[in-house]
Specification:
The protein is mostly helical and about 210 residues long. The strands form two sheets. The chain has a three-stranded antiparallel sheet. Helix 5 packs across helix 6. The longest helix has about 35 residues. The chain is elongated.
Length: about 210
Amino acid sequence: MNTVPASSPNVWRASLMLALVTLLGFGLLYSLAATGIGGLLFPAQANGSLIERDGRVIGSSLVAQPFADDGYFQSRPSSAGYDVMALAGSNQARTNPDLRARLDEARAAVAAREGVVPADVPGDLVTQSGGGIDPHLSPEAIRIQIARVARARGVDAAVIERLVAEHSEGKQFGLFGEPRVNVLELNLALDGKSGVPSPRVRGEGAEGG
């Protein structure tokens, strides 16, 4: 069997060509093509699903943010402080006493804020998502806040209920996940709804708090 010595120029030439094709083809050209095609077919998603108002970016439909005023629906708690550069869950086990204490404290605070008993507080209003900035809440977690939001804005709760229904999403393709509501989009719809006055903002209002 004939073998080519490793020191042969042909071997080095073939190796270098393979490395060059791999780096340029898969490391550069493929990335540029995928980015370009993604930007053309899905421009909003490719740029972070950003939400703009009056030419200013105020958030993303994929990222939760806090709200300061009682006239807004409150987001799910964040273990990352709503910081997109620090995505993480709390990584605390169910048996961790610190986790239990935090959940009990959060449940009591939400119950007092919404005027319900702690047992009626949905879990996603006190637990933190795995990524730390889940922008959605369950319909149950939204409904429990309707009375407070309506009271703060001085409108009938039925008006808020209809708006919530308009912004409620079902399961993905009718099969995957659970029904949900995007909190930021709902709050922005509240501010833009004719006949629904904005609350007197004590923090930063619909752009975080």
